[in-house]
Design goal:
Elements lengths: L1 E5 L5 H9 L5 E6 L4 H7 L6 E3 L2 H5 L6 E4 L6 H10 L3 E5 L6 H14 L3 E4 L6 H11 L8 E7 L19 H17 L5 E8 L5 E9 L5 E7 L8 E4 L4 E4 L7 E6 L2 E6 L7 H13 L10 H18 L1
Parallel strand pairs: 1-2, 1-4, 2-3, 4-5, 5-6, 7-10
Antiparallel strand pairs: 7-11, 8-9, 9-10, 11-12, 12-13, 13-14
Helix pairs in contact: 1-8, 4-5, 5-9, 7-9
Amino acid sequence: MNWGIIGYGEITPSFIEGLFATKNGKLVGIASISSYEYLKKKKLYKDVQIFKSYEELVNLSDIDIVYISTTNNLHFENSELVITNNKHLLCEKPLTHTFDQTKHLINLARKNKVFLMEGMWTRFLPSYRKFIELLNDNIIGIPKLLKADFGFLNNWSEHRRLLNPKLFGGTLLDNADYNIFLSQDVFKEYPIKINAQATFASTGVEDTCSILLKYPSGGMAQLYSSFQCETKQEAIVYGEKGYIELKEYWHGTKIVLSLGNELKSFKYPHIANGFEYEIESVEKAIKEGKIEDDLLTHSESEDVAKIIDDVKNLIK
C-alpha cells in the first residue's frame, strides 16, 4: 500500500522505520513546510518525493493513505484536507483537540467512505495485545482497579510543542491520552464519574494531571501524567484473582502476571520499533473494505475525546 506523510515532526522518522519494516507498505511522498529544505538536501529516503505543499501530496494519484504527524493544532485541518480528497487517513494522536472536531472528521470519513483512525500505536503492540487477551480471558477475574502513569521530565523550551498553547501543548493531549485510551480498553464502558486535578506551566498549559475514572461496573482508574518527573510508565490492573502489569506500557515489551503465589513474565520484542504493527493492521482493515479498525474504532476515539473535554472543564 502506498503511503504519503504530512509533516515531519519528532515521531516521523520512527514511523517511517516501522513502515519500512512491513511487508507491503511503501513510502511515496512526504510533505513538510518547515522541513522541506532539510529533506530535499539530506535525501534521507530514496525514491521518495518531497513536497512543500500538503495539497500537492494529497492530489498525488499514487498515494492510497496519508499519515499525519504535524503538531496538534494542525491535525484537524490536515485531516479534513486528506478526507475531502478521498484518501485514507491515519492521524497521529490526538486526532483533534475536541470531541466536536473528532465527531466531525468521523462523519466526514463515513460520508466519503474512506478509512480513518487515530494513531494510538500502543494498541497494536504484541505485549499490549497479550495484556488485553489475558484480561478478556478473565485470568485475574473482573478488573477492579487500573493504575497507570506516564510521566517524563521535559527539558524543551517553552516555544516547542509540549508547553506551547498555540500548538495545543499540555499533558492532556501529549501523554494523558495514552492513559485514557488504556482505561477505556480495560473497562470497555463509559465512565459514570470523572474527577481531575492539574498543575500548570508558566505558559498556561497543564504540565501534570491526575484523573480518576469510575465505571458503571464498579471499576476505577487512577491515571497520572506529567512533564515534571520521570515515572515508571507502567500500567497495573488488579482483579479478584491477582494482577497484570504492563511494563513501560505505551511502548514496552514485557508483561508480569501475578496469581496468588504464582508469578509469570512474558516478553514480546518488536520486529522493528513497534509502529509496524499499527501500520499492518491499518492496511489489513483497508484491504478488507473497512473504514475503521476493529482494534481502535471511531466510537473509542469519540469517547476519549469526550473524556478529555470533561477533564479540561474540571481543571480550569
